[in-house]
Amino acid sequence: MNKHTLLKAILAALQAELQTYVRAAKSARAEATDEQSRAENKYDTRGLEASYLAAGQARQVVELEAAIAAFEALPVRKFGPGEVIGLGALVELEQGGERMFYFIGPSAGGTEAKCGKQDVLVITPQSPLGGQLQGRKQGDWLNLTLGGKQRRAHVVAVG
Prior knowledge:
41% of the residues lie in helices and 25% in strands. It is α+β, with helices and mostly antiparallel strands.
């Protein structure tokens, strides 16, 4: 799997999510400042709720912009068979006969990208799975604890 293509797919997914949040933040801000959102009495909180929503969406925009910057600054490098998993690694795991691909990213855990026909999930070193993969290398077997359950997994490849 080509990492340059994968990073482009991750950035495209983040950009699309960013555009969605920018539109939502603008809409919520317009709602919060609209004349009709003015409180009619002390129990009317429509305008206040809209302003909280706008603030939350604006924070999401800032977080996504930071994630995009972090991925753009991430050096693309190939991990050798004996190298330990770290930031920027593409990891192929086999669990119960099923193979899954994970990219260890600086942020934006949970982002999904498609590279060719493969789905790749971005995880961070701070996530439960990312933390358990740190320091492992190709060929290692590990007992993953995910969702309170133990699962045996094999690190098929690290790229």
